[in-house]
Design brief:
Number of helices: 12
Distance between the termini: 35 Å
Length: 589
């Protein structure tokens, strides 16, 4: 993004028109929020740059009316990543897992059928009615166009049915937002990895368990924010460490226990006191790790090889601000989980990869250019607005479920000239109805709020959701066909005592009381480490990992060493001792 050196903004000051080069302050229009947020000259330059052009006329995107958090919440309410239901394909009758329950008003097809020529998305096309709002007409279209049961391309999957927002998988089970992985289970946001279980945002790793924000690790358990480590337990903020346990902020160390150096023989003798296959032993190790970490310092934000950035978990980024979990991007703001060669984009969540000029997009990815207000638009799509669940589209407006199409509006085909004239007229109509420049409204979500990613970032009670006029969906627990149900407290302590036929049982979660199964693949993993059988339902384990992560929010607080003011994802009232980047690097290196 080219930074404008001068941008004139007219504002009212003391009753006279004045010219200022400072930020503008807006108030979020959501009645439950009303938080102030700034709009900078650089932001305004971006909104101008990303505004689409129809028939030579620019449809100017206005400044946002919602604060960044409310904009993110509005996008994430459109995405159900984790809730899967058993139902039948409405075209073939085949049993399948689906992100939509049976009672949805629109047809749901198995993804292999959805991607086939068995149906034609253009058959649902309709004319635009200028007497009615755009969003009303778009929702009517979306209520009849078939949806795929999960977000994936099935030709990239091998023995990996229970997944969502995932591709290029082999032998994976209940993984989400994942790609290029093999033999992985119960994980979210993992990439290019093998044999990972219960991991979150972990990349290029193998044989890891309960790891969060880790890179290039092998045989690492219960660790976070660590890179290039192997054969270690309970690490935090370590790099290049091997055969270490209960360590934090170490670099290129071997055979360390609680940050103290030992010989290889001494370290192995210490670790023999901890038979990790025992549930009781492992729980005591957890407590030991938490206690040790509480007495250490932490880094204000995590990142690597960045220039002019603000946020957390940023890697190889330049001029990226107010963003989190972003890799290889430049000139972006308000982005999260945005990966690999992305630039000139604002307000994007959940994907990326070779993308430029994206604004207010959710779960869009793979070779994208100039998309505005789109959800789940992928595979070499460009110059499109207000489209959902489309692939390989160009110059489309307000479309649902299209594949490889161009010059379509509400799924109806037009010539290039017709498209430009009509798209420009619709944009003008939306400006008059105050819809232009707004993402799909909360009320257009196809899911209950509690099913969406929004609940993970912005948790609400059922009463709060209903008060805002949004939907909530109760989940009916599936009846498991098993030989016996065993309370977690009745499981044998050691993995060595677990019988083979536990795969025919159900374990009752000791916290939620929800039953869950242990798969054969999972049992083999626990035995190989060794680790005890988990006592907590997989959904609850995922929820706990998520809330244990620092929020995607920045606060100002003083450095715990030098006292300098800094930005950090650790809220001021939290007890951790937080160091600024300069003090952290001096202490560690």
């Amino acid at each position: 993004m080219k930074i404008l050196t001068i941008l004139l903004i007219k504002v009212q000051t003391g009753g006279n028109d004045g010219v200022h080069l400072s930020h503008m302050l807006n108030i979020c229009r959501n009645s439950w929020c009303k938080q102030p947020f700034d709009i900078t000259p650089v932001d305004l330059a971006f909104y101008d740059k990303v505004s689409p052009i129809f028939s030579g006329k620019k449809a100017q995107i206005p400044s946002p009316t919602l604060c960044p958090d409310c904009r993110k919440q509005r996008r994430l309410i459109q995405a159900n990543m984790y809730s899967l239901w058993k139902r039948k394909c409405d075209l073939t009758g085949k049993e399948m897992m689906s992100r939509y329950p049976t009672e949805t008003p629109f047809p749901v097809y198995h993804a292999t059928v959805w991607w086939s020529d068995a149906w034609n998305p253009l058959s649902y096309g309709r004319d635009f009615d200028f007497s009615r709002p755009f969003f009303q007409q778009f929702q009517e279209l979306r209520s009849v166009v078939p949806q795929a049961n999960i977000t994936t391309t099935y030709d990239t999957l091998e023995n990996s049915e229970y997944i969502n927002y995932a591709s290029y998988l082999k032998n994976c089970y209940l993984v989400f937002h994942t790609s290029f992985c093999e033999d992985c289970m119960y994980s979210v946001g993992i990439k290019r990895s093998k044999n990972l279980v219960d991991c979150l945002y972990t990349y290029d790793s193998e044989r890891c368990y309960e790891c969060t924000n880790c890179w290039n690790c092998y045989d690492v358990r219960f660790s976070e924010n660590s890179r290039n480590c192997n054969n270690s337990w309970f690490l935090r903020g370590c790099m290049g460490c091997s055969e270490c346990a209960f360590c934090t902020n170490l670099v290129n160390k071997n055979n360390c226990f609680m940050n103290k150096q030992y010989s290889k023989e001494e370290y192995e003798k210490i670790m023999k006191r901890y038979p990790t296959g025992s549930y009781q032993t492992l729980e005591s190790m957890r407590e030991k790790g938490l206690e040790f970490f509480r007495n250490s310092f932490v880094r204000a934000t995590e990142g690597h090889q960045n220039e002019d950035t603000s946020g957390d978990q940023l890697y190889f980024c330049q001029n990226v601000h107010d963003s989190f979990h972003v890799e290889q991007a430049r000139d972006c703001r308000f982005c999260e989980r945005f990966y690999t060669n992305c630039e000139d984009s604002y307000d994007v969540d959940q994907y990326g990869q070779n993308a430029a000029l994206l604004y207010e997009c959710e779960c869009c990815g793979a070779d994208l250019y100039a998309l505005t207000f789109c959800a789940k638009v992928r595979n070499s799509s460009s110059r499109s607005s207000y489209c959902d669940h489309c692939f390989g589209i160009r110059d489309c407006f307000g479309c649902e479920g299209l594949r490889g199409k161009q010059f379509c509006i509400l799924n109806k085909q037009y010539t290039e000239e017709e498209y430009g004239r009509l798209a420009s007229k619709i944009a003008g109509h939306m400006m008059a109805t105050k819809e232009w420049g707004e993402f799909f409204p909360f009320e257009l979500s196809l899911f209950g709020y509690n099913e969406t990613i929004a609940q993970e970032y912005f948790p609400l009670t059922e009463q709060e959701v209903e008060k805002r006029g949004w939907s909530w969906r109760e989940h009916t627990e599936e009846t498991l066909k098993v030989q016996r149900l065993i309370p977690a407290s009745k499981l044998p302590d050691s993995i060595s005592e677990i019988p083979d036929d536990i795969i025919n049982w159900a374990v009752e979660c000791e916290d939620t009381k929800r039953p869950f199964r242990i798969t054969k693949q999972e049992l083999e993993f626990y035995r190989s480490v060794p680790l005890p059988i988990p006592r907590i339902h997989p959904d609850e384990r995922r929820r706990r990992r998520s809330i244990a992560c620092n929020p995607s929010k920045l606060w100002n607080r003083p450095c715990g060493k030098c006292g300098k003011e800094m930005e950090t994802t650790y809220a001021p009232e939290r007890p951790e001792v937080v160091y600024c980047e300069e003090c952290y690097l001096k202490e560690v290196y």
